[in-house]
Amino acid sequence: MSRATPILSKARKTLQDLELLKVLQSEINHELSSTPVQTSQSGSLGDFVVDWDSPGSLDVVLRRKYESGEEVAVSALLGPVRLAEVGDFPSDAFMKVCIKKPGLSSILQFDCGVFGKGGNVSEFDVHNAYYLKSVACPSPSVYRGPLYSTLDPQLQDTLKEYLETKGIGKNLTSFLLHYLHRKEQGQYVNWLQKLEAFVAKED
After folding, report:
1. Which backbone phi and psi does 47 adopt, to 5 degrees?
2. GO CC terms on record (predicted)?
3. Beta strand pairing status for 122-132 and 91-100?
4. Contact at 8 Å (CB) between 168 and 97?
5. How far is CA 173 from CA 46, 76, 121, 184, in A?
């Protein structure tokens, strides 16, 4: 009986591994056969280009450069998963917009939130606006401006319109939401496939 115990334990482990493999393969097939969000409104980059996007990172950086030398940089990443309507985006996104004028070291930085607005239409809100004297990270003691929510509502509207003139609109925010959700799904599938390969090798 003492010799049978290790054999039974090994057989039990093999069955557990096979069951885990089936579950992993089922999840991989499900992810590969579905899209994060079913919609035809995937947005567009407009005049922006993807400036940086690492397979291992959570964020993406876009850039737009004008003939005048002015630059607009946008970085975005998904926020936590939230309760959403069927077919809507499961996560909102955090977006940072930086605008730099030629010949100046200072920049304007806007912290924004991008969210689905029913039917996979997207919108964005501005949460903070900063004037930074230098591109380098400012000292914590440097005054960065008042709370955005305390600004005059007309000024808040005008600042958002200013961003829209720089190409930060529904097309771009829809693109970002789709792009980031696809990126997250790709990373998840890649992780599942590595896990599957590990379990299969152990078996």
Report:
1. -90, 5
2. mitochondrial matrix
3. unpaired
4. yes
5. 11, 10, 9, 16
Q: Distance of alpha carbon 146 from its chain centroid, rounded? A: 27
CATH of domain 49-187: 3.10.280.10
Amino acid at 93: A
CB 80 within 8 Å of CB 88 = no
Tell me the domain boundaries of the chain. 49-187
Per-residue pLDDT, 61: 97
Q: Scanning the structure block, which residue is given the tokens 């056969």? A: 33
CA 34 to chain centre: 19
Query: How many of the other CB atoms lie within 10 Å of CB of 189?
Result: 15
Mean pLDDT over 188-195 rounds to 87
Q: Angle between the 170-202 and 4-32 helix axes, to the nearest 10 degrees?
A: 160
Whether the CB-CB separation of 91 and 81 falls below 8 Å is answered with: yes
Q: What residues does 61 pair with on adjacent strands?
A: 52, 75
Query: Does the structure show a pLDDT above 90 at 39?
Result: no
Burial class (CB in 10 A: 0-12, 13-18, 19+), 111: middle
User: Quick check: 5 and 184 in contact, CB under 8 A?
Assistant: no
Q: State mean pLDDT over 60-79.
A: 96
Residue 114, beta-bridge partner list: 93, 124
Task: State whether residue 177 is helix, strand or coil.
Answer: helix
